[in-house]
Amino acid sequence: MTTMDMIVEPDGNVRLVYDEAIDLHLIGKVAIQRGSHVEPTSAGKWSVDLSPVGGPTLGPFDCRSQAIAVEVAWLREHWLSPQRG
């Protein structure tokens, strides 16, 4: 079973780390916005730029999967939090 953490804000907007586990169109109008950028560096490593959600740049990481795991963990801890803001 797959789980997704969602924050429903007072205005009805929902924040979540996108996953295809749930068809989001079932809960209403969907507008997906990028929360970060996982990109290769000129040194052959990977970095995570979390500036779209007011976060830091993390890395370098040896492989893309490592960068994505750190990206998702950061988003869950710092952005997908009821105490955010």
Quick overview of this protein structure:
By secondary structure, the protein is an alpha+beta fold.
Q: With helices defined by DSSP (H or I, 4 residues minimum), what is the helix count?
A: 1
Rg over CA atoms, rounded to whole Å, is 14 Å
Main β-sheet, in a few words? 3 strands, antiparallel
Tell me how many strands there are. 5
Q: Which structural class fits the helix and strand makeup?
A: alpha+beta
Q: How many domains would you count in the coordinates?
A: 1
Percentage of residues in strands: 15-25%
Quaternary arrangement of the chains shown? single chain
Distance between the termini: 31 Å
pLDDT average, as an integer? 90
Strand order of the largest sheet: 3-4-5
Name the helicity range. Answer: 10-25%
Architecture overview:
With about 80 residues, the chain is α+β, with helices and mostly antiparallel strands. The model has no long low-confidence stretch (mean pLDDT about 90). It is about 20% helix and about 20% strand. The chain is built from one helix and five strands, in the order E-E-E-E-E-H. The strands form two sheets. The protein has a three-stranded antiparallel sheet, covered by helices on one side. A two-stranded antiparallel sheet has the order 1-2. The protein has one domain (about 5-80).
